[in-house]
Amino acid sequence: MKIDLHTHSTFSDGTAAPAEIVDRAEKAGVTMLALSDHDSVSGVGEAMAAASGRNVTMYSGIELNTRYGDSVHILGYGVRWQDQVFLERLAEFRQRRVVRVKRILEHLRRLGIELPYEEVQGVSSESMGRAHVADALRRRGVVPNRAEAFRRFLSPGRPAYVGSLGPEPGEAISLIRAAGGFAVLAHPGTVPEPDVVADWARAGLEGIEVHYGSHAPSDIVRFQDLADRLGLLATGGSDYHGRGSGREGALGVEVPDEVGRRFLDRVARCA
């Protein structure tokens, strides 16, 4: 079956609106879909409405960026996306993103690149990040696209890089659980020390994104083995960001039917 439990819209660093993602997913044959914007659930309502009466079932989701490593992220599914306490914590995380962006702009200034904060803020509907700085650099003619901005300035080891100011992984897991959802490790290949996944499982992590857009068959086998050893769910997602995002992968990943069934069983138990 074809599912996609990892997508991003214009409410974070994607280039398509939530309703557009639903439309594209249906056309791609995706039957199970989740919107998982960075530190934001503001697009979930639009996506749910767009999926109503169509051949794709929509689930609430989110991706929390943690401060562990460079790109260790925790996905949350079945969260109460209108819960006020949950929304307040997300607003706090997004404010940390503003601080991070301003630090990046200061690094760029020291490199002789003047990029006003307002130019970055103006292109982000809600959850700002490095991608929005990259877009502003592209519009200024400093770089031709997002990918080049990351290569020259924004990736680890590059002169304007600033690490995430997000929560620790355990805190992210706890927040998702407190909002009635369950936590899944996104793109597990980004974890620098795989042994720590067992620690996160003890802290309440319930799944691993085994079927990821860029995973080779050997990666799938390796991460499925890890999930089996730790008693965790396997999930799947493309990490879709849309056209012109610098991450041009297609929507949807093929997974065994059992992966979809176990996800449905778990999300049905979310409070």
Short description:
The protein has helices at residues 18-27, 44-51, 84-110, 117-121, 130-139, 146-154, 169-178, 196-202, 217-230, 257-267; strands at residues 2-4, 32-35, 57-65, 73-77, 182-185, 205-212, 233-237, 253-254. 41% of the residues lie in helices and 15% in strands. The radius of gyration is 18 Å and the shape is globular.
Please describe the structure with a list of short key phrases separated by commas or semicolons.
DNA polymerase, domain 1; 8-stranded mixed beta sheet; TIM Barrel; 8 strands; 271 residues; alpha/beta; globular; 2 domains
Helicity level, as a percent range? 40-55%
Q: What is the CATH level 1 assignment of the largest domain?
A: Alpha Beta
- Count of discrete structural domains: 2
The percent range for strand residues is 5-15%
Instruction: Characterize the overall form.
Output: globular
CATH H-tier superfamily of the largest domain: Metal-dependent hydrolases
**Mean of residue pLDDT?**
95
User: Distance N terminus to C terminus?
Assistant: 26 Å
- Using only C-alpha atoms, the radius of gyration works out to 18 Å
CATH topology assignment of the largest domain: TIM Barrel
Largest sheet: 8 strands, mixed
- Based on secondary structure, the structural category is alpha/beta
Q: Going across the biggest sheet, name each strand in turn.
A: 7-6-5-4-3-2-1-8
Point out poorly predicted stretches. none
Q: What is the count of helical runs?
A: 10
**What is the annotated CATH architecture of the largest domain?**
Alpha-Beta Barrel
Query: Would you report the number of β strands?
Result: 8
| Element-level helix/strand string | EHEHEEHHHHHEHEHEEH
